[in-house]
Amino acid sequence: MNMPGQGRWIFVVIRDEDLLEAGGNHHFSGCGFWFLPDLKTAIQSARHLAKTMSAPEIFIARGASLYAQALPHDGQTCRTIMHETIEDGPKLETGSLEDWREVHYERRVKVSDGFPDQTYSVIERPS
């Protein structure tokens, strides 16, 4: 994953009590990050910062569990579809994206020992 550019903030949802106690405003490679206890707090914080900085959107990078929790808050989201079976890989519940429509996609084909075949897509919830 490429690191975000200068002036970006990352809100990390984490259960580690030591990191939560340390709070936020840490810096790494020109971006700042905060440790937060849950998705709701992270979304509220990100929206507040986006409004303060006149940013047009927030991006939630997440695993399957946070992805499912974030869907009700999303109008548009990115997803990765794996075209190979990954043993014990994370999966969304069937039908969780039933009403969404794909607006863009890019297919990535496996090259030798690289990442498995996958499709990155942008999907939107109908208004």
Structural features, described:
- By secondary structure, the protein is α+β, with helices and mostly antiparallel strands.
- The protein has 2 domains: 1-59, no CATH class; 62-127, Dihydrofolate Reductase, subunit A, CATH 3.40.430.
- It contains 3 helices and 6 strands, in the order βαββααβββ.
- It starts with 8 loop residues before the first strand and ends with a strand.
- The mean pLDDT is 78.
Question: Could you give the topology of this structure?
Answer:
Elements: E1 9-13, H1 17-22, E2 26-28, E3 31-36, H2 39-52, H3 64-70, E4 76-82, E5 101-108, E6 118-124
Parallel strand pairs: 1-3
Antiparallel strand pairs: 2-3, 4-6, 5-6
Can you summarize this structure?
The chain is of the alpha+beta class and 127 residues long. The protein has helices at residues 17-22, 39-52, 64-70; strands spanning 9-13, 26-28, 31-36, 76-82, 101-108, 118-124.
CATH class of the largest domain: Alpha Beta
State which percent range the strand residues make up: 25-35%
Order of helices and strands: EHEEHHEEE
Protein structure class:
alpha+beta
Widest β-sheet, arrangement of strands = 1-3-2
Helical amount: 10-25%
Low-confidence stretches: none
Can you tag this structure with a few keywords?
single chain; three-stranded antiparallel beta sheet; 21% helix; alpha+beta
